[in-house]
From TrEMBL, chain B:
Species assigned in the record: Marivirga sericea
Lineage: Bacteria, Pseudomonadati, Bacteroidota, Cytophagia, Cytophagales
Source domain of life: Bacteria
Domain (Putative zinc-finger): residue spans on this chain: 8-40
InterPro entries, A to Z: Znf_put
Name of protein: Anti-sigma factor, TIGR02949 family
Amino acid sequence: MGERMSYESKDKQRVFNEEFMPHIDAMYNFAYRLTLDEDDAKDLVQETFMKAYRFINSFETGTNAKAWLFRILKNSFINNYRKKSKQPNKVDYQEVESFYNSDSVNENITTDLRVETVQHLIGDEITNALNSLDVDFRTVIILCDLEGFTYEEMAKILDIPIGTVRSRLHRARNLLKEKLKQYASSLGYKDKRK
Amino acid sequence: MEVEQKQACTELLELVIDGQATQKQHDELMGHLEKCEECREEYLLSKSIKDSLKNHIKPSTSPTGLANSIQNKISETAFLK
Ligand SMILES: [Zn+2]
């Protein structure tokens, strides 16, 4: 809204240190959960901060630095890692503007996954279930449930409309429930053998 | 429950769970949950999954040296200009 001026060199460093650096842990966590590799995560964070510095003039002081940085990180991730993979657009799921259009709403997913079961799952099982999701689905759960971004912030970070954020999130959660259900039933199997 | 109504419920439910509902939407859902067992179960399940994610997947700190190496690179860049 206000006039955007380019920063003096020393202001650049100040903005960088005061507004960007405090998010380094969150950035590292996001990078790690996307790449699932510590070295890749470090590289990704480093690259993101270098870009952030380079494009610092497009950042307005006082606005949401964390979301701005997450957006850069997400774009770098797509550029570096999606290209490497053999199937760049493996996830060709159709996303609809309406909240649900999929049949997922009619699936009775909740029937055999119970609150008590979820509460008994241990950290590794939750983590594995999340990590097993395709990266686009994993991303919305990370942003919403772990980082607490609003749908609006997510829309900006991901460059997609809010309606798509919500439908993607809904589908991601259904997939996660499916995974958790599988863990739960494998646990039940183990219990019976005891 | 009608499919359409069920969709509206789930949409509302997610807004509330994600902390992005207005007071009015929140009250509307709570009123509905009192009467509807199906949605109540869905609400509790979704909430417990969200809580589990938060409780089990704790953020870690960035590796030692990463912040320093970034700041060094930035200083170099700034100095070169
Ligand atoms: Zn209901």
